[in-house]
């Protein structure tokens, strides 16, 4: 740093890892709020066409996992997927905590995944199913209906994949360079 100044340590709610946990909380709140809105607006009403022939808001209940996997399994999947989400979330919380404070991309990706996982866990434990409301389709083709938590998980997973494919080597080289200096 110029003039021999050292950066001040960052404390508080916006310091790592708390800023990432806060991002997860924001995802959870937005997810739950939009699900409540969708239930109120679309459970007994017609879908809302956003982009006719491509995107609409509707209401669906998903008793399974992604793409309704195991939706007809008889009820045990609620507890299984709930346990998986709790264990996975604990791992991600620790993972975020152990990341260097200077990292941005990886903890942001993990925070999005964590928020999405906990948003869907909330539904699964409280209701026994996940509320979905975003429908993408074209003609007779329909993508499975999804929600904000699913979007956060998908974006976070894509970010982690990008990190792994394009930036992991740079991180490793910078860590080696810093260790040798």
UniProtKB/TrEMBL annotation:
Active site, UniProt feature: 132, 150
Name of the featured protein? Lipoprotein signal peptidase
Can you state which reaction this protein catalyses?
Answer: Release of signal peptides from bacterial membrane prolipoproteins. Hydrolyzes -Xaa-Yaa-Zaa-|-(S,diacylglyceryl)Cys-, in which Xaa is hydrophobic (preferably Leu), and Yaa (Ala or Ser) and Zaa (Gly or Ala) have small, neutral side chains
Q: Which organism is it from?
A: Microbulbifer agarilyticus
Q: Which residues cross the membrane?
A: 20-38, 76-96, 108-125, 145-167
Please name the gene that encodes this protein. Answer: lspA
Q: Which GO terms describe its biological process?
A: proteolysis
Q: What is its main location?
A: membrane
Membrane association type: Multi-pass membrane protein
């Amino acid at each position: 740093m110029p003039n021999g100044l050292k950066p001040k340590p960052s404390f508080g709610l916006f310091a790592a890892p708390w800023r990432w946990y806060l991002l997860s909380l924001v995802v959870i709140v937005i997810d739950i709020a939009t699900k409540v809105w969708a239930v109120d607006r679309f459970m007994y009403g017609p879908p809302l066409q956003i982009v006719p022939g491509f995107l609409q808001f509707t209401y669906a209940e998903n008793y399974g996992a992604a793409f309704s996997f195991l939706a007809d399994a008889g009820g045990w999947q609620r507890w299984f997927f709930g346990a998986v989400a709790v264990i996975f979330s604990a791992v991600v919380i620790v993972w975020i905590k152990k990341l260097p404070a200077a990292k941005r991309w990886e903890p942001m990706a993990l925070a999005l995944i964590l928020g999405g996982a906990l948003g869907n866990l909330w539904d699964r434990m409280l209701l026994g199913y996940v509320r979905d409301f975003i429908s993408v389709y074209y003609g007779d083709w329909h993508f499975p209906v999804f929600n904000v938590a699913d979007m956060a998980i998908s974006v976070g997973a894509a970010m982690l994949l990008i990190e792994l494919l394009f930036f992991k080597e740079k991180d490793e080289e910078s860590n080696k360079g810093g260790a040798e200096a």
